[in-house]
Amino acid sequence: MLPRSTTGATSAGTSPICILLLAPGQSIHTIRWANGLAQRGLDVHLAALEAFPEGAYDPRVRLHRLPWGRPLGYALATGALRRLVRRIQPDLTNAHYATGYGLLARRAGCRPMVLSAWGSDIYEFPRASSWHRRLLQRNLNAATVLCATSQAMSREMSKLTRGMINITPFGIDESAFSPAGARAANGPLVIGTVKALETHYGIDILLKTYARSRALLRTTHPALAARLELHIYGDGSLRAALEALAARLDIADSTRFMGKIPHDSVPEVLRGFDVYVALSRMDSFGVAILEASACGLPVLVSDADGPAEIVADGQTGFVVPREDDLAASRRLTELLLDPARRQALGQAGRQRVLDRYTWNLSLDAMLGVYDRALSKIRS
Question: Which residue, 28, 26, 74, is CA-closest to 50?
């Protein structure tokens, strides 16, 4: 029997466990984990090398800004983290991001340590060099318990460590991400995405897909083609190149590059879409895809690891081969021509989120991990 409970103070003689989170202070994922754990009654401390956005965190979350910035802070803030650990004496540390914060937790000797991988730390970092791979392996092997956001990421991690890997997906707030009301019958028909404008998210493939579908529909269904719009939310290093590509594809007149938006604006944006498209070359999970599904949208995704896992092909959306704009345009055209199919896929997608990916389910999974970590260290 553990002397403390991960479900809050439930009886005489027990008290909430004290958790130290090491994670990027400005990430929406960090904000959600910290606030959710505090709302479940845990004593939550968050330490980060970045500044914390004002007003983002539950007042019960105690924030600790570590000295130095990234990337030097991952090595140079070790002493400061050790002093913080001695002062607050957490029951366990949960480091999020297996490279930077995993390194910091390992060097500081944090035990027990739950290490949560996020994506690029597993899919990109170890491919940079043999040194990067060895560093990541040392971080993974130092953890008491390991976590991945998807089965696909777990399989990738298994190539680097023999440790048991728990699945703790990023959950979706199903009350915030909810379907829109009825849309105007003859209004704009909006295809959209919310992604950074970088190579691995395949925005160029989306533009080519949209261009193919629009060109075909201009011939076969000109009235419908005239209603089409492509809305791209997000920013990144490829924006100018992608805008130039849209012009070359002759779709600039109906393509809108909307720029980056705050996360609390995303639900309303998604409710303005008719189809959500994510044709990533690489993606370890796909939070935005699940958010779109929660809003009742049909989704069209590539067969990158994460999206292919979370989308039920033909049931909640369509999965197409990576970098295949012809296959994607066929599925997109099919969706654009069939509003009843769009609605059915969207409804099934929301139900899948409710069954598997709500924020409460993710918190339950993480609390189970914490219990296992504490049991393991005391056994």
Answer: 26
